[in-house]
Specification:
This is DHHA2 domain-containing protein. With 276 residues, this protein is an alpha/beta fold. It contains 10 helices and 9 strands. The chain is globular, with a radius of gyration of 19 Å.
């Protein structure tokens, strides 16, 4: 994986002579599922595409914002994948590539482009959208990572290494524990079982979940402002913007910070900011 990411970044730096660029773009939330599915699918495309096509995973955030995503940074650091190997949205001009007729685009974790990216719709060739695979309940929706694993197993199972299995399995488990239902769908269980049978030395599920929860609820070196910016979502009617963010914490921590306004749940404090 490191070799693929390093080679992709090196080729991008010489992109003036590229004829075709296939970008796998995650969602603006850049959560673990979005990032890992984009990286894994770009790796798969790199192996099955013609040599004149540069396949790139692009993180849909500026590089400076990556420090907010503690669980994502943790799992990459565990596998010794340097942050410097990743390509961030502010490091590649997708609109220029599209205007030059060089861009193909695969979207993961969403079937929607932001308003500023609407002109890129003509470049979209595939959408990996877990919402289209759910059972009708938002609590039991699939993950992009499980859909990517399923396709790779069908098309080129030999490409799944233990390192890739670790990434994808961690992403699926984190998606499951982050859902309100806190359960694993039948499709996700099948994918996890295949990965675990193929690589029996993978750490126990409970260990991975425990470590990721600790990383999510107790981020190191991240301020409360950065935690809120990580999950910031905006709603606007054209005149008024409402920004909504989620801060994860235990009930004990919530009680220690009773000065914060919000609604208490088992693990979350919802904060709303109104901007006129």
């Amino acid at each position: 994986m490191e070799e693929f990411l390093q080679r992709a970044r090196s080729r991008l730096n010489r992109s003036k002579h590229l004829e075709k660029v296939h970008v796998v773009l995650g969602s603006k939330s850049c959560d673990l599922d979005s990032l890992i599915s984009a990286v894994a699918y770009a790796y798969f495309l790199d192996k099955v595409s013609p040599p004149d096509v540069l396949c790139l995973p692009v993180l849909n955030i500026p590089r400076r914002d990556f420090s907010f995503f503690t669980e994502t940074r943790f799992i990459l650091e565990e596998l010794n994948i340097p942050e410097s190997f990743h390509i961030f949205r502010d490091e590649i001009n997708l609109h220029q590539l599209n205007a030059e007729g060089k861009l193909s685009l695969t979207l993961t974790n969403s079937n929607m482009l932001t308003s500023e990216d609407k002109s890129l719709e003509s470049a979209v060739v595939k959408v990996i959208n877990p919402d289209e695979q759910c059972d009708g309940s938002l609590e039991l929706q699939a993950s992009s990572s499980s859909l990517v694993v399923k396709e790779i197993l069908q098309e080129a199972p030999e490409l799944i290494t233990q390192q890739l299995a670790y990434l994808l399995r961690g992403s699926i488990l984190f998606k499951c524990m982050s859902s309100e239902a806190d359960t694993i769908t039948e499709q996700q269980e099948k994918v996890l079982s295949v990965l675990e049978e193929k690589f029996p030395d993978l750490p126990p599920r409970e260990e991975i979940i425990s470590v990721l929860q600790e990383t999510q609820f107790n981020p190191q070196g991240v301020s409360i402002e950065e935690v809120m910016l990580k999950d910031l979502k905006e709603i606007s009617d054209g005149e008024i913007k409402i920004a909504i963010s989620t801060v994860h914490m235990t009930l004990e921590e919530r009680n220690d910070h009773s000065q914060f306004p919000g609604t208490q749940t088992n693990h979350q404090l919802w904060l709303i900011c109104l901007c006129l």
